[in-house]
Design goal:
The complex is a heterodimer of chains A (547) and B (310). Chain A is built from 16 helices and 19 strands. Chain A has 547 residues and is of the alpha+beta class. In chain A, strand 14, helix 12 and strand 15 form a beta-alpha-beta unit. Chain A is globular. About 4% of the residues of chain A have low confidence. Chain B has one domain: MetI-like fold (Orthogonal Bundle). In chain B, 74% of the residues lie in helices and 0% in strands. Chain B contains 13 helices and no strands. In chain B, helix 1 runs antiparallel to helix 3 and helix 6 crosses helix 7. Chain B is flat, with a radius of gyration of 24 Å. Chains A and B meet through helix 1, helix 7 and helix 13 of A and helix 2, helix 4, helix 6, helix 7 and helix 13 of B.
Chain lengths: 547, 310
């Protein structure tokens, strides 16, 4: 009897576990039915994937391109950048710029939030002030600094009344800038500048953490469903002012962390597009797609660079820095390691930036003879006899790709300059702290422009204190040029200042540019008008499907 | 019995306290900050962020706050995923990992016991060699290789199963198999060896000589004794499997709990690190307790008395 009882208990406990599991399973099944039901209808559905759960879908809190790739399509700023990189009026119907280029007057068009409220100037003012309020700790607030009084207020020293944001009436927003900012209308398309519905935000602190009624937007798509860590579904916004020009009815965005898995989903036809920001092509598939002739590429306003610590060690010496920069064979690196269509960088401002197409020649790359001359000079200044006495450490954040690049460069420096190099790596969060504390000699970094202007790249080195400098380098003349460029209203003169600045930067070489990124992507034949712009963004509004 | 269980609960609380303390200090000793970002922001904003999460307090205040919030089982808001509470993140992802884990457990235990018994019954014959080879292969092929192979051949090439995602039973088959195979191999080997031991014992010989069939002896007598070591193995296995596998979830894009164990650490997402660690510890400690209690039922020779171990 007793034995039978114990068996029964064992069985019963197993059943209990099974029952608990069946519960979850049936739930999942009903979900499966729902999603497969929509697939066969005639409406246009685009299937995409992103690599991670978006950290924040609040426009003022987002800091990354994954979140941006959703926000840009659910919200709409005063202006928008289309897939050709052209700036168009969006929530604003008309923009007037004063002669001194300091005052922008935006006339808003009649548009509605998804909850039926009209989009008013106050929504923009509220969003911008919210982001700048130091209490809200918006990590990307600095992109609003061109607005008058923004920086002081954000740093806790100014007052909100002094901000150059004025709501004239419900349909008119007047913005005063600190300095003439030729790219300001591009900034107003950036997600931090997007409006939020004041009432919704005030009612609910975490309005942005779930899809549903509380997530009120004004863009071409609505956030229909957000299954955390699993998928996001966007639906065409039927209340959008320009809905006749939105072709897609549904966009499914799956979250697939492994790029190998995403590539397999693309190969089997479950994804329609692969390429930043909607996941990436894995390195090992690059050649396959190239052979099939389907790999496409767009220039990308971004630079991959090796920062140099100019405050101590051998990299304090400018000639050593130059020698290191010149002896890298960038073409071979791109051909053998990266395998994409990147451009060797012999300047810090990418060729994709308007006006800098012909400036990629500020020093000679892969010129061993010249590099050796600089090296000898540098060694003499340091009081060393031989290059083998130099010890240089490359620091990278842990990643296979960065490691291969570092190994290639290590090999080159050893072969060409006989410099011994070590490579050390650290996790991303640790690495960032290490670089900003100048606890490194040579450190890899990338910089992607938030707006298509050279100032985005050059501004980082204006002072040693600049949080994005990370090299300890500063130069009086360079700083003056940057200040002049900011104040200048004449576009040609401004360009000249920036170009002169870049020459100084490359002459002093606190940072070695390695290559300019390119944006590789593949798309199914029936996907039309889908390509990333120079900043790596895709506007889904224009995308169409023709099956 | 009740006294024993109560005593065990006290031990569980002590263990949890130690785990929370050690995790807290290790977390703080590790370099790197949750708010380090590629594009810098002003120090004022960083100070504000630290204040929001209480990171500007001295360590003993932070430690005290952590203990209190953990006691209330409220781990706070994630530092990486804005506006998301750690509790919600666990509550949403755990049922998925649990379902997948239970499915994998059923596969592993069912097939493992079957294979092990068959191998023992046909000791040193063809079937035994085949089963043992499968078991050893299962143990030695890492789950991420198996997951990749299953996904490539059964998912992409033959299109029999979905490649990735979580939308119903069919989606769980490949990942559950990938998780189960290693454990199945272990269980098969365990069952086989303890079964062989039982087969040589006198009660089995006795039963056989009375004319019971091979399988009859197995089901009525030897299997129950042979399963004891398996039950021991099940507790940590169960706790491990139902809390998700980072690598399998990553490959099959499953929104489970497993990924948080790894990504929360690389993100230095303190609140999520604490939440997942405490959650996992509770499950592990409870699973061990349950197995110890189950022992008493399976084998009456084991008596559960307060604290004294045989």
């Amino acid at each position: 009897m007793k034995k039978k009882f114990s068996l029964l208990v064992l069985l019963a406990s197993l059943m209990l576990v099974l029952a608990a599991c069946g519960f979850g399973g049936s739930d999942d099944k009903s979900d499966g039915d729902k999603s497969s039901g929509g697939d066969n209808s005639a409406d246009k559905t685009l299937n995409l994937s992103i690599a991670t759960e978006p950290p924040s879908l609040n426009p003022q809190k987002a800091t990354d391109s994954t979140s941006g790739s959703i926000i840009r399509n659910t919200f709409e700023g005063l202006t928008r950048v289309d897939n050709k990189g052209e700036i168009q009026n969006a929530a604003a119907e008309e923009v007037k710029v004063s002669d001194d280029k300091l005052t922008y007057t935006f006339k808003l068009r009649d548009a509605k939030w998804t909850n039926g409220d009209p989009v008013v100037a106050g929504d923009f003012a509220y969003a911008w002030k919210w982001a700048l309020d130091p209490k809200n700790a918006s990590e990307y607030a600095s992109i609003l600094y061109p607005i008058k009084g923004a920086q002081v207020y954000n740093e806790g020293k100014g007052k909100v009344e002094d901000l150059g944001i004025k709501v004239v009436d419900d349909k008119t927003l007047e913005v005063t800038l600190e300095n003439p900012t030729p790219y300001f209308l591009e900034l107003t398309a950036f997600y931090t500048y997007m409006p939020v519905n004041e009432k919704v935000v005030k009612d609910n602190k975490n309005w942005f953490s779930e899809a549903g009624d509380k997530y009120v937007t004004n863009g071409p798509f609505t956030l229909d469903e957000w299954k955390h860590n699993d998928s996001i579904t966007l639906k065409k916004n039927e209340d959008y002012w320009d809905k006749d020009n939105v072709a897609l009815s549904t966009v499914n965005v799956k979250m697939i962390e492994s790029s190998a898995t995403a590539n397999r989903e693309f190969d089997s036809g479950n994804l329609d597009y692969l390429g930043s920001p909607y996941n990436v092509i894995s390195l090992d598939k690059m050649n396959t797609y190239k052979d099939q002739g389907v790999l496409k590429s767009q220039p990308y306003a971004a630079v991959y660079e090796y920062k140099l610590n100019t405050t101590e060690g051998p990299t304090k010496n400018v000639n050593i820095r130059k020698a290191l920069a010149m002896s890298i064979d960038r073409e071979a690196l791109i051909k053998n390691v990266l395998k994409g269509s990147q451009t060797p960088a012999m300047a810090d401002v990418p060729v994709a930036i308007a006006g800098f197409e012909n400036d990629n020649n500020l020093f000679e790359g892969n010129n061993t003879a010249e590099a050796k001359k600089y090296l000898e000079k540098g060694l003499k200044e340091l009081g060393l006899k031989d290059a083998s006495e130099l010890k240089i450490a490359i620091s990278i954040n842990t990643d296979e790709g960065h490691a291969s690049i570092a190994q290639f460069i290590q090999e080159g420096w050893k072969k060409n300059l006989r410099i011994e190099t070590t490579i050390d790596n650290a996790e991303w969060q640790v690495y960032l702290d290490k670089v900003s504390a100048l606890d490194y000699q040579v450190g890899r970094m990338g910089w992607i422009a938030d707006y298509n202007d050279a100032y985005s790249f050059l501004e980082r080195y204006d002072t040693a204190k600049n949080g994005n400098n990370d090299t300890g380098w500063e130069n009086k003349e360079y700083k003056d040029l940057m200040t002049k460029a900011v104040k200048e209203t004449d576009e040609e003169k401004r360009m000249e200042y920036l170009k002169d600045g870049q020459k100084i930067l490359m002459d002093e070489m606190p940072v070695i540019p390695i290559y300019f990124y390119s944006n590789e992507y593949v798309a199914k034949d029936y996907v039309k008008n889908m390509a990333p712009d120079k900043l790596g963004n895709i506007s889904l509004k224009e995308v169409d499907i023709e099956k | 019995m009740l006294k024993y269980i109560l005593k065990r609960f006290v031990y569980i609380f002590i263990a949890l306290f130690l785990i929370i303390t050690i995790t807290f200090f290790l977390m703080r000793l590790a370099p790197g900050s949750p708010f380090a970002s590629e594009k810098s922001f002003p120090p004022e904003i960083e100070a504000q962020l630290n204040a929001e999460y209480g990171l500007d307090n001295p360590w003993y205040i932070q430690y005290k706050d952590y203990l209190i919030s953990t006691a209330q089982l409220d781990f706070g808001e994630s530092m990486k995923y804005k506006g998301r509470s750690t509790n919600d993140m666990i509550a949403e992802s755990f049922p998925i990992s649990l379902t997948l884990g239970v499915e994998a457990m059923i596969l592993a235990v069912g097939l493992g016991v079957l294979f092990g018994s068959v191998a023992a019954l046909y000791h040193n014959r063809g079937v035994d060699y085949v089963v043992t080879t499968i078991a050893v292969l299962g143990i030695s092929v890492p789950s991420f290789i198996l997951a990749g192979l299953l996904q490539y051949f059964l998912g992409l090439k033959l299109q029999l199963f979905p490649i990735s995602g979580w939308n119903g039973f069919i989606y769980s088959i490949l990942p559950a198999t990938a998780i189960a195979v290693t454990h199945m191999g272990f269980i098969a080997k365990l069952v086989r060896s303890s079964m062989l031991e039982q087969n040589n014992s006198e009660y089995v010989k006795m039963a056989r000589s009375k004319g019971l069939s091979k399988w009859g002896v197995l089901f009525k007598h030897s299997l129950r004794n042979a399963l004891l070591p398996v039950v021991t193995y099940l507790a940590p296995l169960f706790a491990g499997v139902i809390t998700g596998s980072f690598i399998v979830e990553q490959i099959f894009a499953i929104p489970g709990l497993g990924k948080y164990f790894v990504t929360s650490i690389t993100n230095r997402d303190y609140t999520v690190i604490m939440g997942t660690t405490v959650f996992y510890s509770i499950i592990l400690l409870l699973a061990v307790l349950i197995v110890d209690i189950l022992y008493g039922f399976i084998d009456p020779r084991i008596k559960l008395r307060g604290g004294k171990k045989a």
